[in-house]
Specification:
Layout: H1 3-10, H2 14-22, E1 29-30, E2 36-37, H3 42-54, H4 59-69, H5 82-119
Antiparallel strand pairs: 1-2
GO molecular function: DNA binding; DNA-binding transcription factor activity
Protein name: MerR family transcriptional regulator
Keywords: DNA-binding
Length: 126
């Protein structure tokens, strides 16, 4: 697929996709006329990269852990510097806190909706 389709399917700008390529996070083949050609698997990869960036991980660490997201997994232990381990530990713990917060908020919204719908059955949209 071309860069425009990958951009559309992932909600990621073309500029950002080119940046991911510059950073070694994704690889595009080149057609005879020089256009980038992306493999279908990169849709999920780009979404994973975006999630990791949103979680606060820098691209240099994302590049190192991307092989762990593949099947079969390939983990390169020599790349695991003390800084990387500390960063990943901190980010993992921060994500766990965020997940707990999101789950609480989801449960509160669900409880609210349940109460509203029990009080006003017409609000359910049925």
């Amino acid at each position: 697929m071309r860069i425009g389709e990958l951009s559309e399917r992932t909600g990621t700008s073309r500029r950002l996709l080119r940046y991911y390529e510059e950073q070694g996070l994704i690889v595009a083949a080149r057609t005879a006329n020089g256009y980038r050609e992306y493999d279908e698997r990169l849709v999920d990869r780009v979404l994973q990269i975006r999630g990791l960036l949103d979680a606060g991980l820098p691209t240099r660490i994302i590049r190192q852990i991307l092989p762990c997201l593949d099947t079969p997994r390939t983990i390169y232990f020599p790349d695991a510097t003390p800084e990387m381990i500390a960063t990943l530990t901190r980010e993992r713990d921060r994500m766990a806190d965020r997940i707990r917060c999101l789950a609480r908020n989801r449960d509160a919204i669900s409880a609210y909706l349940d109460a509203v719908l029990a009080y006003r059955p017409e609000a359910s949209g049925d």
